[in-house]
Design a protein that fits this description.
This protein is α+β, with helices and mostly antiparallel strands. The chain has one domain: Riboflavin kinase-like (Elongation Factor Tu (Ef-tu), domain 3, Beta Barrel), CATH 2.40.30. It is built from two helices and six strands. Strand 3 and strand 4 form a beta hairpin. The two termini are 19 Å apart. 21% of the residues are buried. The model has no long low-confidence stretch (mean pLDDT 91). One of its GO terms (molecular function) is kinase activity. It catalyses: riboflavin + ATP = FMN + ADP + H(+). It is an enzyme of class 2 (transferase). Keywords: ATP-binding, Flavoprotein, FMN, Kinase, Nucleotide-binding, Transferase.
C-alpha cells in the first residue's frame, strides 16, 4: 500500500492521453520499478477506483530524474492536486521499459490499462 499527496509533475501524461497523478509518498518506501494494477482511494472516500501505476524514472524521456510514483485512474477525470491517494498494489504487470518514441509508449499504455483491468477483475 502506498499513500501520499498528489503533486505537480511534468504534465506529459495528459498530453499523451493518459493523465497521471504524481504521488509524493509519505513513508518513502517504494516497490520495485515497474507497472502495477492498483485500487485507488481518494482522500477519505471508501470507494476503490481502478488504476495503473508506474514506479520508476520514466526512461523513455531522457534526463536524470528521481524515481516517481505516477497513478493513472481509469475512466476518471478529476482534479487531484493536493489530495491524498491510498494506492493498493494488486498485481505486477511488467518492468519499466525505455520505448523508441511516444507512440510506442502510448500503444503499450493501452495494453497496460487492459491488463490492469483484467487483473483487477479477478
Amino acid at each position: 500500500m502506498l499513500r501520499g499527496e498528489v503533486v505537480p509533475g511534468d504534465g506529459r501524461g495528459r498530453v499523451l492521453g493518459f493523465p497521471t497523478a504524481n504521488l509524493r509518498c509519505h513513508d518513502g518506501v517504494l516497490p520495485d520499478d515497474g507497472i502495477y494494477a492498483v485500487w485507488v482511494r481518494i482522500d477519505d472516500d471508501p470507494t476503490p477506483r481502478a488504476g495503473t501505476v508506474s514506479v520508476g524514472t520514466n526512461p523513455t524521456f531522457a534526463g536524470e530524474r528521481e524515481r516517481r510514483v505516477e497513478v493513472h485512474l481509469h475512466a476518471v477525470d478529476v482534479d487531484l492536486y493536493g489530495r491524498t491517494l491510498a494506492v493498493e498494489l494488486v498485481a505486477y504487470l511488467r518492468p519499466t521499459l525505455c520505448f523508441a518514441d511516444a507512440d510506442a509508449l502510448i500503444a503499450q499504455s493501452v495494453i497496460d490499462i487492459a491488463d490492469s483491468d483484467a487483473a483487477l477483475a479477478r
